[in-house]
Amino acid sequence: MRRPAETALLVALAVLAGVALAAAGAGAERLLAPAAVGVALAGLARPDWTAARRVLAVLLPAAVVALALHFFRDDFGYRYVWSYSAADLPWRFKLAGLWSGDPGIMLLLAALAAAMLSSLAAAGRWALRGGFAFVAFFAAAAIVFDPFAAQAPAAEGMGINAHLTTIWALLHPPAVLFAFLIVLMPAAAAAEALLTGRRADWAVLADRWLRPAWVVLTLGLALGIAWSYEDYTFGQFWHWDPVQTATFALWSVLTALLHLQRGYAKHDRYARLHPVLGLAAAALVLLTMAATRDTTLASSHRYVGATAAPLLLAAAVVPLAAMVAGLARRGGGVGLPRLPLSPVQLAAWLFVAAAAIALGQLAHAYGAELMRLDKPEELRPYFETLARWIDGEELQRLRRAFAQWEVNPYWVNAWMAPLAAALALVGGHFFLPLASRRRRWAVTGAVVIVGIPAVLWLGPLAAAYGGGGMTSRNTVAMLPLLDLLTLAAVFFLGALGAWTVARLRQPGADRLRVAGIGLLHGGVAVAVMAVVVATVFDGYAQRLLTTAEAAAPVRFPGGYEVNVTAHPPAPSERGSPRVYRALADVEWTLRGNGAVLERARGYSVYRDEAAVMAAAERGPMRAICEALDYRYSRYAATPSRMIQPFIHRGLWQDVQVWVPLGTKGERLPIVLKVFPAVSAVWIGLAATVAGGALTWLAGLSRKRRKAPQ
Asked: Residue 594 in 3-state DSSP?
């Protein structure tokens, strides 16, 4: 571990070198990645060579600094800058260009990996060699995709997709990438533990790295959920996109690792299972990154540009091969714990099962697409409606777009709901603050034997569901499972709350850790149930109006009224068409029962210079379907069209107003969506991340107190 003074010196050297190289230009920065690969390979041969770590901590961050400066200076003589930026783009979106394509992402990952090498210095040679290997891999990938490739200087860049003109593009991708790297870097120590039986390094590194990896990944997912809510399918939080599905599997494996960590580090349990899951997590990182770049399945994360998917898939073979070799060498099997399982062990296995369900459905979708199987009609929403409005070659292209397979969200949800209920029941039993084992089982047994039949018979969610929103018949069919999940969540939150209060009142309690555990587990339960409530009990209404008609008060169910005044925006207000341009400058007012809830000004529909397909203004049904289904939206206007809502955020419910108004006076839909309990979603996610951070800090504090003075 570096001292603060040394770290500050290396950072200063990296910044100065990056500034100097950016000022010099002439492609001098292209020498940094090859030099870094050479140094990293030398580090593989001599992992204890401190100078190699220091040199890498300067070379690769300097390259990132130089690339960022080229974005800020609009150096369109660099192809990567030209591809993902424009002169009048705000600086924050120019910064996001660093992780908008593989050239920048690979370089950024190499630089972050180089900066993390010092944290592996106290570990053995396996861990350090693994760290150097990842630096070499990402630096080599940066050479292949070359973010500093030159071209004839251009007066203007290509700009960016309008969907990326949001603060979430600045926060979500780097958080997820950073979490991925925290999982990857100590993976070689897991291989050492599995292949040789020397578990000391993996035990220490897992204890230090897995919890921050979980916290940062959870934060990244929470930011992605907030982005999806504002951008996707009229406010959908989660839709089992292939990338989301793979990332969820990774999150579940990390969660299982944390549940098994104490037994592995303190009591020598799970000698094979724990490092196997560590290697599985590393492989899932690489597979998730590959899925982000792969176009085999329909995806709302459709990646555009040169792709590193083949390299990432090849790299994923390494941890998977180490896992297989280790299991074979140690006699097969993963070292299943002996029965009966403790609640913590059972929870870990349930999270492993959740990961397996997600990966199984993802594999099914890939297999069906690669074998060119016919996609069932129920997995092709909106196609029949669209087919009535479109004909000719466009219809054939659309048919091909909708024939592309994707993860079946209803199938996954139908398996995840009872699994989540089982997790909540197990967790509630664990947290019951009852000293008597018999009493704990009596309470849990009463919930299972009496509560489950009662809630399935009464069906509270089905009874309360009014059918006023966009909830599909597939979701309605699984309302009994959601009733079961609700019962389990209430039991879990009650037991957790009682446990937290009881522990905080104990003399000498580690209050930071207790509060962290309570917030973490309670936050997950609250967020999950709030998402269920918001999506099942949402409200939906639309009005077909011209721009002139929308200027008058438009009445919606629930006592809401909306005024929308739209006119063409001045070019100076929205910048160059090469970046993005609004089709309507909108002033809108939302009233609820006569009172003004929200009054604001914004923009309704954005386009950039990408060509819009023929008949793109064919009427209201087309506009509705573009917003409803990401496959059609991205097919019909890639990447030129975006509809974002105006949102009134209330304590008890949110109101979204989607205004796809153009400037031609045609009748287009104004859509009003009402979501209950959205505040609870954000509160739950914030509590989860805060709780994870507190437990991490509590662990660090405990280690400092135990360290010899």
From this structure: coil
- Please state, in angstroms and rounded to a whole number, the distance separating the CA atoms of residues 691 and 519: 5
CB 621 within 8 A of CB 660: no
Residue 416: name the closest of 366, 485, 344 by CA: 485
d(CA 232, CA 490): 30
Higher-confidence residue of 446 and 669: namely: 446
Query: Would you say residue 600 has pLDDT above 90?
Result: no
Strands 642-643 and 605-607: antiparallel
**Measured between alpha carbons, how far is 239 from 626 in angstroms, rounded to an integer?**
16
Amino acid letter, 637? A
How far is the first Cα of the chain from the last one, in angstroms, to the nearest whole number? 18
Q: Residue range 194-217: average pLDDT? A: 92
Alpha-carbon distance 196 to 198, whole Å? 5
pLDDT tens digits along 576-589? 545 555 566 777 88
**In sequence order, what DSSP letters do the residues of 624-654 get, joined into one string?**
HHHHH-HHHHHHHHTTT-EE--EEEE-SSEE
Q: Which amino acid is at 419?
A: L
Up-side HSE of residue 631: CA atoms within 13 Å toward CB?
24
Can you read off the two tokens belonging to residue 234? 């009229």
Round to whole Å and give the CA distance between 690 and 702.
18
- Mean pLDDT calculated for residue range 406-413: 90
- Which amino acid, 453? P
Q: Which of 493, 490, 483, 431 has its CA nearest to residue 458?
A: 483
pTM: 0.92
Phi, psi for residue 221 in degrees, rounded to 5: -65, -40
CA separation for the pair 236, 524 (Å, rounded): 18
